[in-house]
Amino acid sequence: MLDPGIEKELPPIPAKRYFTIGEVSDLCEVKPHVLRYWEQEFDQLKPVKRRGNRRYYQRHDVIMIRQIRSLLYEQGFTIGGARQRLEGDRAKTDVNRSQQIIRQVRSELEDILHVLKR
To answer: 88, 82 in Cβ contact below 8 A?
Structure first.
């Protein structure tokens, strides 16, 4: 495990649509076999698979891998703990998104009611 005080700066993510497993390995400083293992352990990580079962990762996948890497290597989480943390973050995001949609719908309904009262 890496010492949190020795955190290395990861390279910037290029402006590309898809990345190969080798490119993601370099960008996240994680070996390809570890990436394949993480796909099995984390539901959030689903790269596109094309011809010959080749994996193509998108930008959000690379960001997720960096987050998983940070949780495991820098913050000392176990696989199970990191999975729970990511699921908790996703649940919070879903709740916030739902609340935002409800506020928007309510506002639109109030506007319609205001127009109908005229």
So the answer is: no
Global pTM value: 0.68
* Domain 11-117 classification at class level: mainly alpha
Encoded tokens for 42: 């984390």
At a CB cut-off of 8 Å and minimum separation 6, what does 102 contact? Answer: none
Domain ranges of the chain: 11-117
User: How is the chain classified by DSSP, letter by letter?
Assistant: ---GGGPPPPPPPPS-S-EEHHHHHHHHT--HHHHHHHHHH-TT---EEEGGGEEEE-HHHHHHHHHHHIIIIIS---HHHHHHHHHHHHHHHHHHHHHHHHHHHHHHHHHHHHHHH-
Quick: pLDDT tens for 51-70: 888 999 999 999 999 999 99
Segment 72-91 shows an average pLDDT of 86
Handedness of CA 17, 19, 23, 25 (dihedral sign): positive
- Per the rule left: phi > 0, alpha: psi between -120 and 50, beta: everything else, 30 is beta
